[in-house]
Amino acid sequence: QIENQIRKLKKPNDFSEKTAFQILKSVSIPKGDFKTVWSIVYNIENKTISFFSHSHKKTKQINLGNIDFEQGLSYFNINQDKESILDTKLNQFAVQTNFEMVSASLTHLGFDTDLSKEISEHQFNQKLITQSYFSQNYFHFDISIPMTEAGKRLFFVVMDSEENFNKKVAVTSGYIFGSTSIGTANRHIYGLKNGLYAMIALIDENKNSE
């Protein structure tokens, strides 16, 4: 659909940021009230980035030609309408700022606050050596199952309690499926919290996901 709309553009005036935003709107999928949802248009000729967010519809712009990339990390708040030209409105990016921004997403994925803080610190200094909260409280789950048939529909489901086992409710990232091939099926689940888990691995012969 978006390709067809672009093909219809003929005149130089058709290739505007306004037109680009209209095309993005026409092909967008409703995503609910998420603050990380935003629409972006890159103007390669002018080296500008224009955008607006889900909650703040006023278009903002930043000119890459005015940015000093030799300086340290900087950021701006996309969810505001007070400032529209952001070239001189960038703020210094620090660990605490990063933590405040990413913690909502990380906790939504099931990571607790202490781990979210550690991940944020590690993003700024990947050589940081500390007594890792992650290594003490989380583990990676590697699964290997030998397969003798190809083309079958294979399911892995990992659950963290008897109640969830009975309900067949998987942990975050613990529901994986794909087609089998002869050999060994290897799957990897990242960042499970220490505890007792159960796993179901099955071939979906009925092709009904049950």
Could you characterize what this model shows?
There is one protein chain. Helix 3 crosses helix 4. With 210 residues, the chain is an alpha+beta fold. It starts with a helix and ends in a 7-residue tail after the last strand. The model has no long low-confidence stretch (mean pLDDT 80). A three-stranded antiparallel β-sheet has the order 1-2-3, covered by helices on one side. A hairpin with a 6-residue loop joins strand 2 and strand 3.
In short:
The protein contains six helices and ten strands; from the N terminus they run ααβββββαααββαβββ. It has 210 residues and is of the alpha+beta class.
Helical fraction: 25-40%
The whole-number mean of residue pLDDT values reads: 80
Number of helices: 6
- The helix-and-strand class reads alpha+beta
Strand tally: 10
Question: What topology, given as strand order, has the largest sheet?
Answer: 1-2-3
Order of helices and strands: HHEEEEEHHHEEHEEE
What amount of the residues lies in strands? 25-35%
Q: Please state the overall shape, judged from the principal axes of the Cα atoms.
A: extended
Unreliable spans are none
Strand count, sense and barrel status of the largest sheet are: 3 strands, antiparallel
Straight-line distance between termini:
35 Å
What gyration radius follows from the Cα positions, in whole Å? 23 Å
Tally of individual domains = 3
Question: Could you name the key traits of this structure?
Answer:
210 residues, alpha+beta, 3 domains, three-stranded antiparallel beta sheet, 6 helices
